Amino acid sequence: MRGERQSQRTRRARLRRRVQSRRKRARRRRARKALQALTTSALALPGLAGGAAAQSREERFTSEYAYSFYSEDALPRSKVTAGGETDRYQIQTHQLRFAAPIADRLDLGLDVAYETMSGATPWYVVPDADGDALQVMTGASIEEARTDALLRGSYHFDSGQASLAGGASFENDYLAFNGLLEGERHFNEKNTTLSGGIGFSIDRLEPTDADLDPLRPTKQHRQNISAFVGISQVMGRGAAIQSSLTYQHARGFLSDPYKRVLVEGTPIADSRPDARNQLAWLTRYRQHVSPLAGTLHADYRFYVDDWQITSHTLELAWYQSLWWSLRLIPSVRYYSQSQAAFYGPWFDLPRADGLYSSDYRLSPYGALSWRLRAETAFSTWRIDWRASLSWERYLSSADLALGKVAIENPGLVSFNLFSIGLTARF
Amino acid sequence: MRRSVLLLWLLAPALLGTGCAAVKPWEREILARDDMAWDPDVLEAQRQAHVYFSKEASLAGGGAGGGGCGCN
What is the pLDDT of residues A125-156, one digit of tens each? Predict the structure, then answer.
């Protein structure tokens, strides 16, 4: 009897110890989570840890992969010269990104992209008997591959960070080396961040089949330098705004070696100025709406250059958090640009400066695109995962332009873009 | 045109700074959410910037640098 009581007392004591131990562990977990949340919130503030272009401080190893399939709509037969190719470009892209803290204040990131491209592209434009524009397409389907890599190192100070990056892009007809140096500095109890940076790119072109086409150059070069300044401001507990100015100066061979333009009835080589000054003013706003568990992203960009192109871009996205860590993100983007000074679908008279282009990318038009993205987050084996799926539809036409367009370029592009992505943090 | 853009941009910090009470570190739980980041998905942002840069005449903006490409 006494033995039984003794045994019951022992069991109760063990049970009490277990419960106390569980409570202690739960308290420690809560404290750890609170500390983690505070640390994260102090470091990962939009516009504070991440400036106008810089990324936030890496606290864990991050590995990301994304696959995307880009497919341009075939051109309507009515917009292409008789017998011409109507199918256009398709691009498959694989993107990889690794980022890791390698020392207390230092992290490294590597971005690699590999893409394969195939299809026909617009060559030049001719008028039909009624004066409407018809697209002449490149005859053969182009098969190309591009590899792009960028290595970035970032050093974090108490009140800012500095990053240095260098990369290269390889194609069989195009080689580019680029680098950038950027930094940011926090002020006003980290509610304001100033950022800035400079970058360059040195490119070499060796157009394919230059020996078969007398209008195509054999080897050319171009370079560009760019600089940006930005400011980010926390507007409240759930609102932040960022504004940045980016300037780029490009010089060298800026024409498209694969395009022609019809001048006085004869197709000649695309010919653009050998310098270009561009300026982009980008303003971004983030507003979280707690009752709806959603966040609004609103971006506006004004662009102007000395080829006399101006453009306006407005993009709105809504990040809606749902159940089971699921998030749906619908977004819409509107874009409108004016034409370059030396653009025309074709030229009946020669220009005094000898500059000509009928590239649809320099034509006046507007574009509307919408995107739907779904993403979810989950954890397994101490790894935090995020999986995403997205689809974008992009339509461009002269009717969507802000100004009136006399003749729509028949080569304007419409496309679908499908993407899947997976991110692991450990 | 470019002068007025520059002037507007220089005035922006003053406009932004006014009327904003400083948010303390312990009040930044919402600001730290991943959907409050300027680019919540870096790869997606890179991909879209590349597509728009290849198909439109404008500069992406928001940063310096960026590699060249043939981009037909």
Answer: 999 988 889 999 987 667 889 999 999 999 99
Strand A142-157 vs strand A133-137: parallel, antiparallel, or unpaired?
unpaired
| Chain centroid, CA A159 distance in Å | 27
Task: Measure the CA–CA gap between A14 and A16, rounded to whole angstroms.
Answer: 5
3-state secondary structure of B8: helix
List the one residue out of A207, A221, A201 whose CA is nearest residue A144. Answer: A207
**Residue of chain A whose alpha carbon sits nearest to that of B29:** A41
User: What is the enclosing helix (H) or strand (E) of A349?
Assistant: none
**Of residues B23, B42, B65, nearest to A97 (C-beta):** B42
Of A284, A282, A283, A255, the closest CA to residue A270 belongs to A255
CA B28 to chain CA centroid, Å, is 20
Q: Which amino acid is at A229?
A: V
Residue B1 has pLDDT above 80, yes or no: no
Does the structural domain A40-425 have CATH classification 2.40.160.40?
Answer: yes
Note the ipTM here.
0.84
Structural contact between residues A333 and A238, judged by C-beta atoms closer than 8 angstroms: no
Is the pLDDT assigned to residue B36 strictly greater than 60?
yes
B38 at the A interface (CB within 8 A)?
yes
Pick from A5-9, A12-16, A363-367: least confident: A5-9
The predicted model scores a pTM of: 0.85
Q: Which two tokens stand for residue B17?
A: 């700074």
- Count of residues for chain A? 426
Residue ranges of domains in chain B: 33-59
> Which of chain A's residues have a Cβ under 8 Å away from the Cβ of B60?
246, 280
- Nearest-Cα residue of chain B relative to residue A369: B52
Give Cα separations from A145 to A115, A169, A364, B70 (angstroms).
6, 11, 30, 11
Domains of chain A by residue range: 40-425
Query: How many whole angstroms from its chain centre is CA A124?
Result: 28
CB proximity B7 to A under 8 Å: no
Nearest-Cα residue of chain A relative to residue B67: A178
Tokens of A193: 């961040």
Place of tokens 């332009």: A401
A–B CB contacts, 8 A cutoff, strictly below: 255
Could you tell me if A292 and A321 are in contact, meaning their C-beta atoms sit under 8 angstroms apart?
Answer: no
Contacting residues of A for B32, CB less than 8 Å apart: 37, 40-41, 44-45
Contact between A37 and B29 using a beta-carbon 8 Å cutoff: yes
Distance from the Cα of B1 to chain A's closest Cα (Å) equals 9
* Residue A399: both structure tokens together: 């009717």
